[in-house]
Amino acid sequence: MWYVYIIRSETDPDQEYTSATANLKKRIADHNFGRSLHTSKFRPWSLIWYCAFPEKYKALAFEKYLKSHSGRAFAAKRLI
User: Fold this and answer.
1) Burial of 80 from C-beta contacts in 10 A (0-12 / 13-18 / 19+)
2) Would you say residue 80 has pLDDT above 90?
3) For residue range 50-69, what is the model confidence (pLDDT) as tens digits?
């Protein structure tokens, strides 16, 4: 399974990060241990939404959509 997820910074709630992974638990731990350059300065992070996909290409396509302007609006209105 592949997961698309959204995390939110506990120290700066205006900061959110969207990504995809095959191992959700490990990836969230990596964000909180500072192993990601994009998220290390806003840790700790909380998982606020995720969705499982059976195929990698579908997960990556949905991640790309969520990072678009209309995808961010959709996520704000429907997901979080």
Assistant:
1) exposed
2) no
3) 999 999 999 999 999 999 99
Q: Is the pTM of this model over 0.90?
A: yes
Q: Which two tokens stand for residue 57?
A: 């290409």
As for how many domains the chain has, the answer is 1
What pLDDT was estimated at residue 29?
A: 96
CB 51 within 8 A of CB 62: yes
How many CB atoms sit inside 10 A of residue 48's CB? 14
Q: Which helix or strand (DSSP H or E) is residue 72 part of?
A: helix 69-74
On whether the CB atoms of residues 42 and 2 are closer than 8 A, the answer is no
Containing structural domain, residue 66: 2-79
Please give the backbone phi and psi of residue 71, each rounded to the nearest 5 degrees, phi first.
-65, -40
